[in-house]
Every structure is written in structure tokens, then in C-alpha cells.
């Protein structure tokens, strides 16, 4: 396995791990600052990964529209977390991260 493939696999694992953390934070009912303090995570790190998670969610949705094909188990899990996050944003009407964005 080449170095690039190993890095890609690690990046995908990190994204999955952080997508689960973002989902946990957003469903906790706590502010991001409080949740991060309780989990020993710097808010700046959390927001960095939240942006990556949401960017990946959008890209994955684009790919699904353009190239429907079998997805790996990890990709399906990541997509289910993204859908859960998006549904939470739609139900609450706004992003709870403090950025002030509102859902459509």
C-alpha cells in the first residue's frame, strides 16, 4: 500500500471520527464551548473539523448525484452521520455552532 493510500485512509478515518464528534456535540443541547470543554477539545479545533465535515458532506452529496455506485461501509456510515446532522439543522431552523447561519 502506497504512502498516499495510507494517508487517504487515515484522512477518511479522521473525518468519520470528527463527523461523529460534531453530531454528538450538535445533539447534546450544549453550547460548542461547553461541549468542547467537557471533551478537552479546543473550540478552534472543533470548528476547523466541523467545516471539513460539512464540506465533505456537500461534496459527497454532489458525487452521489453525479455517480451513483456502491459505497463502502465507512462511506455509508459517514453519509448517515451527515444526514443526521442536516436533519438536526433543519429541525432547529439554525446552526447551533454559533455561526448564526440559518437553514433554508
Write the layout of secondary structure elements.
Layout: H1 3-27, H2 32-38, H3 43-66, H4 73-92
Helix pairs in contact: 1-3, 1-4
Give a structural overview:
- This protein is an all-alpha fold and 104 residues long.
- The protein has one domain (3-92).
- It contains four helices and no strands.
- The chain has helices at 3-27, 32-38, 43-66, 73-92.
- Helix 1 packs across helix 3 and helix 1 runs parallel beside helix 4.
- The chain is globular and about 40 Å long.
- The mean pLDDT is 80.
At a glance:
By secondary structure, this protein is an all-alpha fold. The chain has helices at residues 3-27, 32-38, 43-66, 73-92. It has one domain (3-92).
Separation, N- and C-terminal Cα atoms: 43 Å
By DSSP, the count of extended strands is: 0
- Overall form: globular
User: What does the average pLDDT come to?
Assistant: 80
Q: Given the structure, what is the number of helices? A: 4
**What is the count of distinct domains?**
1
List key phrases describing it.
globular; mainly alpha; 73% helix; 104 residues; 0% strand
